Fold this sequence. Notes:
The chain is an alpha/beta fold and 540 residues long.
Amino acid sequence: MLRxxxxxxxxxxxxxxxxxSTWSMVTPCNMHIDQLAREAEAGANAAGGxxxxxxxxxxxxGISMGTPGMRYSLVSREVIADSIETVVGAEGFDALVxxxxxxxxxxxxxxxxxxxxxxxxxxxxxxxxxxxxxxSKKECDVVSVYEAIGQHAxxxxxxxxxxxxxxxxxxxxxxxGGMYTANTMASAIEALGLSLPNSSAQIAIxxxxxxDCRRAGEATLxxxxxxxxxxxxxxxxxxxxxxxxxxxxxGSTNAVLHLLAIAHSxxxxxxxxxxxxIGKKVPVLADLKPSGKYGMAHLSRIGGLPPLMKxxxxxxxxxxxxxxxxxxxxxxxxxxxxxxxxxxxxxxxxSNPIKPDSHLRILYGNLAPEGAVAKITGKEGLLFTGxxxxxESEETALEAVLNGRVKAGxxxxxxxxxxxxxxxxxxxxxxxxxxxxxGLGKDVxxxxxxxxxxxxxxxxxxxxxxxxxxxxxxxxxxxxxTITIDAVKNELTLGLPAKEIAARKKAWKPRKSKTTxxxxxxxxxxxxxxxEGAVTDKGL
Length: 540
């Protein structure tokens, strides 16, 4: 069976290295990964192994966003992790290289690596270059298009102007260019120790990325010989490093969801409260999109992630003794790393942070007794009180923003979009971008039991647990109720007496599941809450 797929007589004496490729023409994030897989194959073979490339699925969040198809996005994380585990387990590979380039396949790769616990290296497919607007010459990206839709609805951009932004926003291969979920997770996985230094901050189409893949293939043979396994690397302290880096970069709320899921796969006890504990002492230093002005390409040009990690290490905010896939510790990897150029302002010094503590806020209160996740940089303010306007789906909420029904002072409540209620926990990039595009970013808040794209910004709170489908308090909110979001006290409060909330709870009736067959139904049956990472294999 192996001879016709390329094995020679000598190859049967070599360790077999699986190369998990997330290549797909579904999305530019992954359209080049088949080439990167060939580079990793060459590196592994040159180092004395025999590499075997195999594939898995990927779905495009950007294309499915705002449609029922987005329900499959988070589900795909589980499918990808399961498929990598299945192939490697079935074929008996000795070691593994995983190459990911989109929001869900990267945490999925890390989850599979943790489950299998065979020597493994993760490679990030790389970030996209920014688009250039043909008239203004300003840089733009995929989120620029979503925000332009809101500007179009507000009459600020005409049809031709909207199409110009659309045409230039995504110029080629690579993951979405800001500190959105893909770049957040690539950086967090590097800080976790699972990828080679600076894998997270390289351009998708550059020679550096091809070399990164070859070196990852070689490194897999080295850690196989040294018997260094993912769970030797994925300790509690390593996850704390990942959280620290995600905060310093101003990363996506999805980092909370995905790091919890990866930790679960590695059997490391991590909770949403760890983000609060660590966030009290870690500042936001990187001025990156969506709330900042720079993209990942700018960070790449000034040296990538290692200088930031060196800053954090020198400040006592990273655990330098954590092992990595280089066979060395974090501190050893960073020993000879120099500072960023003196004239750059992409990453600020500790003396002048974007925010002195974390932008990722874990909120509790009578609206979120099991927690919620907010991304609040302070640019929108730290306190918002407004009147609820409720929606039972993302589509109806988006329509209300675009037609002007949502006004200043509203707190939009989008519910029944949680892991079970969606099912699938869709991202609310369309309504949040429309809010920003209409100029309401400081005047309208949005809360949901769904989640947010890393491109979302504004006064937004997601991952509210328990979700509405399970009878959580978000299901009980009525139009006109007062809601307060407090990012200082970390509270999410419904301004009603406990007696009234209890009466509404008594009158509440559960909804029927939206699906009874197929992958969405299986997911809804098995998935845990967002506060536990929305995993599907807990307690089986």
